[in-house]
Design a protein that fits this description.
- It is built from three helices and eleven strands, in the order αββαβββββββαββ.
- It is an alpha+beta fold.
Length: 156
């Protein structure tokens, strides 16, 4: 039998779960091989949506971001460069401000080359972990911080 107390409990629970899903943790499904072997095609990833309200993304973190134009398209990539850093790729090796970046998470190396760029203020530079793909199909480059949805905190 439904009592007012029980109905109230379920309404509050549903509202709580809706708020958590909308503002705190959001699931996404990964499509494509660009983050392999870290995140495989079809995996569910869980994204912390509020962490970047308090700080900016750090190098090495995996983020979900969206395109600027509607309808939004969402991508998952790893943060390589932070705002106002110089990023360059030479024969697959990434350099930040002239120093080679050690990337233990990269299994599939490439011979990518990219001239040095300076990451704009309020932007990050992102790349997927699977570097065996052609750079033109894979590199997203600079992303505005306003388009970053959140930090990947789990993979299922």
């Amino acid at each position: 039998m439904f009592t007012l107390k029980r109905i109230f409990f379920w309404v509050v629970l549903i509202l709580f779960l809706f708020l958590i899903r909308t503002f705190v943790i959001q699931p996404f499904r990964a499509f494509g091989p660009s983050m392999e072997p870290t995140i495989h095609n079809g995996k569910i990833i869980f994204v912390n949506r509020i962490v970047y309200k308090f700080r900016k993304p750090e190098r090495g973190e995996i983020v979900v971001f969206r395109t600027s134009d509607k309808p939004y398209v969402y991508f998952v990539k790893r943060v390589i460069g932070k705002e106002e850093e110089r990023v360059k790729i030479v024969n697959g090796d990434v350099f930040i401000n002239g120093k080679e970046l050690k990337e233990e998470y990269v299994v599939y190396r490439s011979d990518w080359n990219m001239p040095e760029i300076k990451v704009k203020k309020n932007h990050i530079f992102v790349i997927g972990d699977n570097r065996s793909m052609d750079i033109s199909q894979h590199l997203k480059g600079e992303v505005s911080l306003k388009n970053v949805v959140g930090k990947v905190i789990g993979i299922k």
